[in-house]
Amino acid sequence: MQNDYQGQALPPTSGPAATVTPLPASPQNELAERTGEWSGSRGEAAAAQTSIRVQVSLLDSLMTLAGELVLSRNQLLQTISTNHLKCAESVGQRIDLITSELQEAIMLTRMQPIGNVFARFPGMVRDLAGTLDKQVDLAIYGQEVELDKTIIESIGEPLAHLVGTAVEQSIETPERRRQQGKTESGAIVLRAFHEAGQVVIEIEDDGAGVDGEQLTAHAVRKGLMTAEQAHVLSDNEKQQLVFLPGLTPAEGGTGMDEIRSAFDKLGGQIDLSGEPGQGTTISIKLPLTLAIIPCQVVMTEGERYAIPQVNLEELLRIPANQVKERIEVVGSAEVVRLRGKLLPLVRLADVLGVQRTFVDSEDGTIHADRRQRIADRRSRHSDQEGSTKPPTDEPVANRQSRREETDRRSAPESALNIVVVSAGSLTYGLIVDRLQDSEEIVIKPLGRHLQHCQGYAGATIMGDGRIALILDVANLAQLAQLNSVDGSDRASQLQKETEVADAAGQSRSVLIFHSSVQEQFGIQLDRVERIEKIKRSDIENLGAKRVMQYRGGSLHLLCVDDVAQVQPLADRDDLLVIVFSFGTHSIGLLACGPIDTRQIVGQTDQSTLRQAGIAGSTIIAGQTTLLVDIDEMVRHLYPEWF
């Protein structure tokens, strides 16, 4: 989550803040030495700490859970000896619950407030600002946010360099700020907060900002990229060049590429945005702990792999009969259009060097997959690489003829399962054979004989005892040599089409779902916060309300038929909960699959099927789709929220 503030003043954030005004300049050591003093010496002191404080109440909780675990173990042993399977199931559920609670309690013993790291920055900023004859106000928020002790000890030095760089390079001198119409005192905001199971640290200033054009020219002069490569970069990619190895290291200092590597080793992500003259925002996402992380498990060629959820954006499934029309070729990259953007695609089997296979739907035999392209035909080609030459020697007439043939993809197993992942500013789609459940896994380091293998961040042991490798999505992108498509002609054309449609109010991204088997519904995608898979047994009916346990609290549940005159929710055991936020409240809409996302262009019918909770209708994939007005539904059921 990033905030771009246009202007001089930075808006306040709720929570306590610490404000620092620099002292008059005094003789100091060199700037790099001063930064190193604060980040290095204190970092070493923190690293030397071998003990932590734990509250007695937490120790009591651990002792209680240990006792419960011993009792459950005895029950399990007795159940096994008597071969009482029904009792074994209930004992297994109890052990699962106790193990989860024990895991959370043990993690709490390692958690420390991030204020232990932030505490060093007021003095550092005061000294640096005095050395450089600058005036800097530092505001700190979220000091109570907790992280694993290992992460706390590792982020001190990188954060010190980022804060020092903001003071040294971004914040202007008082005279320069007066000339630009800014206040003489520069502002730096350092905040930490929880978001989607991660901790986000933001360093924001109102200084000179990031000049992407200057960075690009500098990279070309140093020979780090060619002029042709620089020409196709988007504005955001030009700003991300600040992390390019060899581009930004100070004399005898630490480069931004080293800062990124430090956070990558912690399983984190760092992103930068800003406008020249308006300031810079650096956003860092970190996991709560390094020992246990949530992952999405996928399968490719019979092997399981784990993708950390910190890198996971969304899951996308393209039905077999839509592959031909939705996959395009831009330059040398195969892409799919996803909500007005071109998403480059990578086959996981290809980047790992595994032979791709497919199963014959007629006799079940396994054959080698010899397809060179994901789709059966090629689409429009851009001149990204400065050439209009077709990518193969196939005659143009043959390619045109092949485009007009009926697509042979029809079997459900021919659908594409795409895991949309992000590595820094780069987002791409990873094509896998099957998607499995998300799980919390215990990270194990790779053995010495596998540490030279790129593309893997570690390994874990699954429930059946087999090994699953944890994928490093950043290294996978490098191995696949992904090309940028943002600056291509096709991307520019698509952007113009999207902007025209958006300006006319005719383009919207919707989430497609079902409530009953026959009726299809759509809801505005940017309103959706999260989608959860649940069992019908998870729903509790308390009074006249439906609720479920959700993230340590209760989540209100509703159905479309609670307000609109539509068919009731399908009688299925497996359900979906689409979560929405309304200020401080959250609510879940019960639904069932299949689900999909679509970009609809054109006016919707707001009269024919309009009713309470239904804003109108449109035709999607040949089926009438009712568009849900979630705001109207919630206002009808919970008027006190408004």
UniProtKB/TrEMBL annotation:
Residues 1-44, 369-411 are annotated as: Disordered. It catalyses: ATP + protein L-histidine = ADP + protein N-phospho-L-histidine. Residues 292-482 form the CheW-like domain. Pfam families: CheW, H-kinase_dim, HATPase_c. Residues 93-290 form the Histidine kinase domain. InterPro entries: Bact_Chemotaxis_CheA, CheA-like_dim, CheA-like_homodim_sf, CheW-like_dom_sf, CheW-lke_dom, HATPase_C_sf, HATPase_dom, His_kinase_dom. This is histidine kinase. It comes from Desulfofustis limnaeus.
